[in-house]
Amino acid sequence: MDAVADDDPLASTVFADARRRKRLLVAAADGGVVVGFVLLRDLDGAMHIEQLAVAPEWGRQGIGRGLMSAAADLARDSGAATMTLTTFRDVPFNGPFYAALGWRVIPEHALSPGLARVRDDERAVGLDRWPRQAMWSNT
């Protein structure tokens, strides 16, 4: 997993574009310091979680849950009945975290075309060295 942690951060243009499209939610501490974010996009009629991140020193304080709840509100307000994401299956703050929020695994054979492309891209960059899965939830 060190290779994943050492990946280059997303370009600031990705965040600027998501912000402009109202597909970026942030959690900030006192003083405006960003401590977490969720980056979303529309994918096959669902709201797709591109990335959820909380600064490690702010973990286990409900920030991730709060961001996921806000993302569901945004999805619902945008007209999406479902949300999707891909994640590491066994990492505690990944697959088990989403399962605890009620998310369900999507079998590979049932992936939408866009979600199948996401999984293909993940495999192409080597993320499947660790078990991954796609998941969905109602908004």
UniProtKB/TrEMBL annotation:
CDD domains: NAT_SF. Coiled coil: none annotated. Residues 1-122 form the N-acetyltransferase domain. The keyword Zinc does not apply. It comes from the Bacteria. InterPro entries: Acyl_CoA_acyltransferase, Bact_Acetyltransf, GNAT_dom. Signal peptide: none annotated. Keywords: Acyltransferase, Transferase. This is GNAT family N-acetyltransferase. It comes from Tomitella fengzijianii.
